Amino acid sequence: MGETLRFVTSNRGKYEEFRRMGSRFGVEIEMVEASYREIQSDDLEEIALDSCRQLAGSLGEGFFLEDAGLFVDSLGGFPGPFSSYVYSTIGNDGILRLLEGEEDRRARFVSVICHFDGEYHLFRGEVVGKISTEKRGEAGFGFDPIFVPEGHTRTFAEMGPKKDLISHRARSSEIFFRTLAEGSARCCSG
Amino acid sequence: MGETLRFVTSNRGKYEEFRRMGSRFGVEIEMVEASYREIQSDDLEEIALDSCRQLAGSLGEGFFLEDAGLFVDSLGGFPGPFSSYVYSTIGNDGILRLLEGEEDRRARFVSVICHFDGEYHLFRGEVVGKISTEKRGEAGFGFDPIFVPEGHTRTFAEMGPKKDLISHRARSSEIFFRTLAEGSARCCSG
Predict the structure, then answer these.
(1) Residue by residue, what is the 3-state secondary structure of A133-166?
(2) Are A123 and A179 in contact (CB under 8 A)?
(3) Would you say residue B135 has pLDDT above 50?
(4) What are phi and psi of B30, to 5 degrees?
(5) CATH architecture of the domain with range A3-189
(6) Contact by Cβ (8 Å): B165, B149
(7) Are B78 and A90 a contacting pair at CB < 8 A?
């Protein structure tokens, strides 16, 4: 394909993940910082779509953004769409503290991509798992040191690039990049 | 004055407080439910102003709304502008748990009113205090059972209507209602 896609984010960790995943599909990702206001909602799709709409006028076609969150079952889905704010205030230690003595440690990471190419397209990826009892690992960012995906014993932060194969972001971006590739194949085969 | 002001909220507890406080200034408050989207920001003024702007077109002149939050010092200001979401997920128990063993229990409640009368006017009220070590009291709503204002021993939820004299909301609304009364006096004296 050889396409370059603009990814709107101020989070370099996210950008690096998308860049690595895109390269497997022949998509080059360019990091673009642009300012927009996320709305408060418990629905990631709604937040991502609203953000995408805010930027469509100024950026034009051919960009995407992503909203992601960690949803902890026994905390009613907290921190959910507010993961970034919660991470920057109470952090991993805060989540561990809220779960002290809690047996139900189930959680899931969700990623929603919004791509604007004249129309808005949403792609969702999820990974279920559980919250560890202590922080482990140095890779990744955010809540990665306390999230252990189902079927694994290591946290996302202990996995390094292997996280790219199984994460919520791997799943949303795989659907996204495959859809792009198919569209591009359709467009150019006729 | 005999004026009726529309207050946009879906929180009956807040409405009751404003109604009681308004009556001391001769202002009648009508509760109006109207849908708007709060933005994510750590600045209550910015959130309130944005919400007010969203509603000005449909509601016209003569309404106000309020955004409030509990800011806990040792938690980096958490839950702050996301107090309503945090209350509905981890609740008072969550905040108490995050502060277990913590000596620094300082916190403040902040209320920001945005009033639209053709122009936008912002009014801020704050009350400092500390987070109690357990929930106490049945009155009020939200984080009232764990907040003890400075110079007092009872929580807001133990105070009942006495909260109306010292709360963040008492302070923001007093400035608001006094400003209204002065404007109204100016307008009608000439």
Answers:
(1) CCCCCCCCCCCHHHEEECCCCCCHHHHHHHHHHH
(2) yes
(3) yes
(4) -110, 130
(5) Alpha-Beta Complex (3.90)
(6) no
(7) yes
**Residue from B89, B92, B95 whose CB has the most chain A CBs within 10 Å, to mutate:** B89
Tokens 């040792």 sit on residue: B74
Contacts of B122 (CB under 8 A, 6+ apart): B45, B48, B49, B112, B113, B114, B115
* Number of Cβ within a 10 Å radius of residue B4: 11
Instruction: Map tokens 């902040």 to a residue.
Output: B110
Q: HEC string of A84-117?
A: HHHHHHCHHHHHHHHCCCCCCCEEEEEEEEEEEC
Distance from the B183 Cα atom to the nearest Cα atom in chain A, whole angstroms: 34
pLDDT tens column, A90-148: 999 999 999 999 999 999 999 999 999 999 999 999 999 999 999 999 998 999 999 99
Q: Distance between CA atoms of A109 and A124, rounded to whole angstroms?
A: 11
Residue A145 contacts by C-beta under 8 Å, 6 or more apart in sequence? A92, A132, A135, A136, A137, A138, A155, A156, A157, A158
CB proximity A41 to B under 8 Å? yes
CB B48 within 8 Å of CB B24: no
**Among all residues of chain A, which has the CA nearest to that of B96?**
A98
> How confident is the model over B51-79, as a mean pLDDT?
96
Q: Is residue B104 among the annotated active site residues?
A: no
**The length of chain B, given as a count of residues:** 190
Q: How far apart are CA A164 and CA A167, in angstroms?
A: 6
Q: Are B104 and B164 in contact (CB under 8 A)?
A: no
Say how many CB pairs under 8 Å bridge A and B. Answer: 66
Secondary structure (3-state) at B63: strand
Strands (E), chain B: 3-8, 27-32, 63-72, 79-80, 106-116, 120-131, 147-149
Decide if pLDDT at B113 tops 80.
Answer: yes
For residue A173 the two structure tokens come to 């971006």
